[in-house]
Amino acid sequence: MLAWKGLWKKEWRLSISFHVFVFMLETIILGLSYWRLYQYDEGIMLGIVILLIGAHIWYLPGCLLYSLNKEARLLHVFLHSPRSIHMLMSTKLLNALLFMFVSLSILSTIGVMLFLNVFNGEISVSQLATIISFSGIHLVGASLYFSTFIFFLWTLHHYLKSYVGKWSLLIVIGTFIGAPILYGWFGMQPLYEMMTQWGAISIDLQSYVQTFQLGGLSAEFATGDVPVVYVGYYVIDFVIFLMLYVIATYLLDRKVEV
C-alpha cells in the first residue's frame, strides 16, 4: 500500500500540469461563452457545455499520453521500476479518472441547470437522470477504451524504435489511422452483427418533441423510439480492450529496450 501511495504522489506531480491546463481552458471557454453568448439564449450555452462534456472522451487518453511522454524522458527508470507495470498503469488511470470525474461533475451541474431552464420542465428528473447516467457511463467507457489504444500505440512505438528507428512513428500513425478503418469495415460485416446483436436491453426514455429558441433560431429536439442496446457490443469491446492492454503491458514489461 505504501508503494502504491508513493506511485500516486509521483503521478500527481507528473500530471498536475495537464489537469491545470484543462481546467483553465474550460474556465476560459465557459467564461467567454457566458460573456458573449448567454445574453442571447441559454440554449447556446447548453450546447457549448454539452460539447465540452463530449470532449472529455479524450481526457483520459490525453492525460495518459502526457504522463507517459514525461516518463519517456527517463524511460530506463520507468522500465526498471521494482513495481509491476499494472501498478504503474493503475495509478496513471486512476489519477486521470479522478480529475476527469471532477471536471465532468462541474460541467454536468452547469448543464443540468441550463437543461432544465431551456426545456422548462418538459423532461422529468428521472428521465434526465437516465440520460446523464447512460451518457456518462458510455463516455467514461469510451475514454478508457481509447486510452488503452493510445497506450498500445505508445508502447508499440517504443518497441519498434529499437528495430526501425524513426520509422516506428510512421508505423504508429498508420496504425492509428488504419485500425479504426479496419474495425469500421468489420463492423459492417454480417459476422460482426451475429457476434454483437444479442442480449438486448431497452432504455426507458419516453418519446417527446420539444421546440425552443436557440440564438433566435427555432430548433427542435426530439427522441424517437425507446433505444435498445446490446450486451454483445460491450462484450466485444471489452475483449478488444483486454487484448490491447495485455499486448501493451507485455511489450512494455518484456520487450521494450532502452
From TrEMBL:
What is the scientific name of the source organism? Pontibacillus litoralis JSM 072002
Query: Any idea what this protein is called?
Result: Uncharacterized protein
What superkingdom does the record give? Bacteria
Q: Where are the transmembrane segments?
A: 12-37, 43-66, 93-116, 128-155, 167-186, 231-252
Keyword list (alphabetical) reads: Membrane, Transmembrane, Transmembrane helix
